[in-house]
Structures are given as structure tokens and as C-alpha cells.
Queue: 2 jobs
Job 1
Amino acid sequence: MRITLLEPFYSGSHKQWADGFAKHSSHEVQILSLKGKYWKWRMHGGAAALAEQFMGMDEVPDLILATDMLDLATFLGLTRAKSKDIPTAVYFHENQLTYPWSPSDSDTKTGRDNNYAFINYTSALAADKIYFNSNYHKESFLDALPQFLKQFPDNKGLENIERIKEKSEVLHLGMDLSRFDNIQSKEIPDGAPVVLWNHRWEYDKNPEDFFLILLELKEDKVSFRLVVLGESYARSPKVFEEAKINFKDEILHFGYADSFEEYAAWLKASNVLPVTNKQDFFGGSIVEAMYCGVTPLLPNRLSYPEHLNQNEKHLLYYDREHLRTMLGNFLCKNNQGRFSNSNIRKYDWENSI
């Protein structure tokens, strides 16, 4: 089968997934993409730009596979002379209906954020098949649709929700986890347990609670070392700069890793990952850490319970104080055992495609 994969935001986890799918699929996959920046403009204008690329192709694919950043309905309208008989599917990495918006984003004050959620809705309507990267993602999107549609004055389309539900399935994110296998851990000089942060430096990852809990434990004379990884942005929360000062004696690494090998080595040197994220539709960085043997302490919500088997449910916490207690106990016991990655090997491309 020949598949054309449409990715308007070809960067980060979107790029990794697209490349991994093309590499590991038994089908012939051609990626049509745009650079991974200006996400709002990609959702508005990406369909037109990728439609032009698509119409310039000589071959006709057997399947069109788009991701959630594409306005699929507009794309199909612009390419109907060529695409009218081709089955379509959309893969939701995230959605703008249930994604928490930054308080600093001016669009939340004008209501224009509805545009992006509506693009996700009409893309789901236009597709023949819809895939979500976690069960939480699928259920939260479907649950949010009634309230979203009821805000409009008429022709709300509530009957379309059942149509979307019938087309929806869960297809967990495929990841290249085996590439971590041959990387050696960093050496930790004093043997203290290492706390890890390996997410983007953004508001929805809730770094404030993460660093505040660590500061409270430090004030209680609990010993630990700290590795802070992840990509920073121009408007990254100020708490990261404060953390560089507050934890100057604990920090082993602070900032983006220069290479995959360095990133993987720091993961393998870490012992515990306390997750304070407000939002995750899947949690790729968390899965990577778990695969490298880092013990996760996860909120009992979002997609996280899906990553644990029944014997690992004790790693779920219910509120901030519960997390503080769990992390304090872990560090005080100087627990440096490795987490078993047997349950999450299912996400490796070799096992998921």
C-alpha cells in the first residue's frame, strides 16, 4: 500500500513519529511536510501549502494519513480532483479542544481559540478513520465535544458526535525505544539518588510544583541530585532560572542535551521521575525515562495509568501532598533500583506496527 503522510508541523515528537512510521511500516510511506513552527498558522494555512505539494505528485496513494495539525476538510476540498476516491485517516497527537491554553496567549481573551478546536472537529468529521494516541485522549475528546458544540447558535451538529465515535480507535504512539539500549549511563560521583525532569519547559508541564516540592524536601535535609533536561523556549517559565540558583549544589545537568547519546546517558543515570504535568495526551518523554529504568511517580489521571501494569499502580499519586510524601520516601531510602520496562516495550516500533 502507498501512504501519503501529511504533517504540517514536522518537528519534535511529530517528526519522530512520522519518520518512525515511514521507516518501520511495511507499506510505502511518503511524507509531505512543513517546518515545525508557527503552529496556529500551520493549522490555518498548512492545508493549502500541502495541497499544492500533493497535487504536484505524479503518483496517487492508496491512503491519505494526516495528523491533527492539518485542516483535513480544507485539504480535501482543495485536492478533490485527485483525492476524492482515496480513503483518509487522521492521527491525533494532541487536540486543541481539550489542550490547556497558556494564560499569556492573547487568543484566549478573544475566543479565537475556538477556531483551532473546530478544525480538529471538522477534520475528524471528514476522515474515514480516526486514531488517538491514548485511550484517555480519545475519551476526553469525545466527552468534550457536546459542550463545545452547544455553544454555537444553531445547526450545532450534535448528531455528528456518534459518527466520530464510531470511526475512532486507539493507536498508541510508536517510539524508537530500542535506540536507548546500547547507551551507557553517566557516572554519578557520590551515589545520591538522582531526580529527573525531561519535559519541555512550558506551563502545561507544571514546573512550579515540581521545583517547589524539591525545595521543600531540600529544606527538610533530604539529599538528592538533579538532572533537568528538555527544550526551553523564549517564554519558558521563570521558575527554571530560579531553580538554577536554588539547586546549584544538587544540579548535575541543567538544559537541553547536545545529542541523543547525552540525553539517553542522563536518563540512565537518573533514579526517579516525579511528574507534575497538567496535560499529556500520551507522555513520550515519560515513556522514554521509564524505558531507561527510571521509576515514575505519576498522577492518577490523564494518560499515565495506561503506562503501568496492575503491579505498578502504587506509583500513582492523588494530589500534591501525596507526591511529596512518595518522593520523600523514595529519596530517604536512597532507592537506586531500576524500574522494569517490560510493560512499555509495547510502544517500540518493532512491537507496535
Job 2
Amino acid sequence: MIIVLLVLLIAGCARPAPPPQVNRAAELVRAVRDDSTATIRQLLGAGLSPDTLAPDGTRPLTEAARNGRVAAARLLLDADARSDLRDSSGASAMDDAVEYQHRDIAILLVEHAAQDAGESPAVAAWFDSLANKRSLPADWRRLLDGELTSLALLAAVIEGRGDMVSSLRHAAGVPNRTGYTPLLVAARTGDETAVIDLLEAGANPDAEVAGHLHETPLMEAARDGYVGIAHRLIRAGAHVDHLDATRQTALMWAVREGETDYARALLQAGAQRGLRNRDGETALDIAKRINHGDLITVLAPR
């Protein structure tokens, strides 16, 4: 028996250690989380990829976006980190920047997308002026076209620049490589004026994010219960029972966030109570799971 135990002990001690790159990947993610720029520079300078995947399934850039680490995100992007890569949850850096409303990170990612789209130095100066609240050149309209116009509009929405949103609203339906529409970001941030401008310009109220959830503006507005925006989107033709990638509706999003008034507005617009998500739950089931009495009352069968 003693011999067997000794053999097992020796075998355990002989178990190979994790590869050095795995340890360094975890260290880089920790450094990003801690906003330790010196450690980030050291690891990147030693040749570690900024796109490395840590053992917990996170990537450095998505971790920076999730935690609002602007300096870390800038270092990673300067090292050619790919903003389109997703972590093990399926989220990209832009997904997390928008979800957690880290505007500085979102702007940084939009500027990086503009660089990838072939921006000129003059266009780069335009984005910099917008981000730093400086006056824009009088002839700025000649600088922007195609995808760059869409990215400029997205940046204007993120920065809350209503004047520029109005001026660039013609680009409301132009796709860009972030996968995000200006309307969806305006709905997420509660910018009802921008929502009105974009809808009047013909923005699709049901345009999905090209991300891991495929959410719509009506779903994003549910996060913080922007009922006025919900009414605007519904009047513009938004489908109240649109399904995301997990078969959740805007009603389920509202219930999950505890937004009773928003849920009530959706029900008044005809949202179905009985639809089930990928886990087989109805909106009422979700309300019961989170033990939200008001929502349980609102959603109870009539």
C-alpha cells in the first residue's frame, strides 16, 4: 500500500507544468484587469501576442473593454490586437464596451476600425477632434465617405454630439466593420434625440448587432428601461417579438433587467407572453426566477 502511495505521489509531482505561454497569457489578462501598463508593455515586448487566449477563456482586449481600461486597450491596439476576435463567451471588445457603456473604449475601437478602413491623416484628425471636443474643420464633409461616414456617425452617437449626428444621419444605414449600428448604440445609451434623427433618416429599427447575441435596438433600450425610446422604435415598425440568438425577446430582456414599465409598454404594443427562450423559459418564468413581484403581476395570464 505504501509503495502504491509513493508511486502516485511521484506521478503527481512529475505532472508537467502548464506551458509558459499559458502562464503568460493569464498574466497579461491580469495586468489588463489591474491596469498595469508596465507589465503589459513587458509581456508584449517579450513577444506575447496581444490576442492570446487566457486559460479562463478571456482575451486581453475584451478584458480591457469589460473593465474600462483605456490605457491598456490603447497598448493592445498599438500592438495590433484584433478587435474582431471573441472570447470564450462569444463577446468581442466592442460588445463589452457597449454593454458596460465604456464610451472611451468604444471610441478607441471605432477609431481603430477607421484606421483599418483606410482613413487618411485628415480623417484621423477629424476623429481626434471629435473625441477631444475640438472644433471640426469647415470642409469635413469632403473627408468622409462610405464606411468612414458610418464610423463617424457611430462615433458622434457615442460622444453624444447631436449636431454631428444630425449632419451625418444620411449614413444611418451604411454598415461598418464594428457590427454596430448608430441606432443600436443610441438606444443603449438612452439618447432619444439621436434615435429620432436616425429613424427619420431611415435607420432599420430591427437591425441586429453582428455579434454573439444578435440583439436589436429595442432589446438594448430595455437594459435601462428607456420607455420613450421603446415607443419611438415601435412606432417606426420595430418587431416587439424579434428573437435574439438565444431566442429571447425584448420583453425577456426587460424582465431580466427588472424594468417593469418597459415590459408593460411592450405588452401594450402586443408582445407575446408565452414565447419561450432557448432554455424553455417564458418572460413570466424569468420574473419568478428573479423573484420580481411587480413583473410577476404584470405578466400573469389575463
